Amino acid sequence: MAREKRFEYVYAEDEPIKVYQRAGSSFWQARITLSDGNSIAVSTKQTDPQKALRWAHDHKIRIEATGQDPTAKTFKKVAEAWLKAVDEEGSKSAAAYRTIAERYHIPYLGTYKITQINQQVLAEYESWRKVYWTKGPGSKLGKEKIVRNGKEYTRAKHLGSAEKAYGEDTVLRGIFKFAVSRDMLPASQMPVIGTKRAKSAKTIKANRHPAFTTEQAERILAYCNTQPSLPKNIIREGDAELDLTPTNFDRLVFSAFVHLVLGTGIRPGGEHVLIKWKHFREETVDGVKHQILKISPETKTGERDVRCDTFAEAHLMGFRVLSNFRKDDDFVIADQETGKPVVSFKRQFNTMCKALGMACDTHGKKFVPYSMRHTYATLKLEKGVNIRLVANNMGNAPEVVHAHYGHDSTVNRANEFVSDLDYLGLKKPKAKPKKRPPPEPSD
Fold this sequence. Notes:
By secondary structure, this protein is an alpha+beta fold. The protein folds into three domains: 10-64; 75-189, no CATH class; 214-410, Intergrase catalytic core (hpI Integrase, Chain A). Helix content is 37%, strand content 14%. The chain has 13 helices and eleven strands. It has a four-stranded antiparallel sheet. A three-stranded antiparallel sheet has the order 9-10-11. Strands 5-6 form a two-stranded antiparallel ribbon. A hairpin with a 2-residue loop joins strand 5 and strand 6 (151-156). Helix 8 (249-264) packs across helix 11 (371-382).
């Protein structure tokens, strides 16, 4: 027995279009077969079948002229699916990505079909984003929610920048790539996102952190190698004296942090917190032993080997003996009570700079922990180490090291300008003859 028809169709003449009504609905639905063979179903919002056919005919023309599919997912649905996928992958950036998408992208682009978003729409979004905090939705916020270390906090609104952060383009690009990978968007329709403007040398120089000089770096190491005096706690046990003065572990951990960054050039925060004792190993090259540190693949620029300077190696190995957490799987820069990595040393760093009387460089720029990474690069370049090797050790491209970390100046390298060319077209000055002492008077 033949199956009963689900709908009564009304067909268009000479076109692969048919319309029908669902039970309980006064509107006619249309099923349209496109020129490429794909079929779509859509509501015509018409109550008359002939008007519905005409509407479907016009709609077919619109689709094939613009390449837009009305059955495509909305940007909001794609974004939420992508955020869910990122969260399930266990990405550390999942919370930050969600904040960006829900604050900026979804409110503006959410109702668009993913296939409708082109360069013009993105240009309109850019204009909306620039006034987000002054005239847009951000201007109406009293408080905002932030997520840190997996916990959600509410705080007074912090005005954001009118300029997009790099992460905003990363999130938007991730959403569109997800749509392409899930066949929600043809690859040919993916818009160009985040064309990055090159920063001028003047802007880079104005924004980069200052570096310490060799003399300043030596003073920092001397400060770290001298423990502050604490009240002595000495008791007698028979004929022997026992020194029970507590060790200043905060100072020891900070000192290890300083030696580690100054001796390797690694990134404070993003890289030092993941380092464990097992990440150090010894390698011999042409009979010379070197301490090599393996940086975690979870960091900004991924896994790499870093050569550790001798002064830092010696200090860290001595610190390991004193540390409460010295096993291979323990964190190196660890809180001595919990064993968890210490993320920030901003307070101790500022105290040290103040004690040494060098809170700022000669141009008035404040020194920060990241200045030690700049110092590492600058001192290596001044010693003539190949910039490509310095870049490899730091996890950067040579161009980045040259632009951001080369703090050479005509003052500290002035002696290198002296050459015979300084006297081009001039007579080379002669050394003045030494004055002879007057002859002694004769008898």
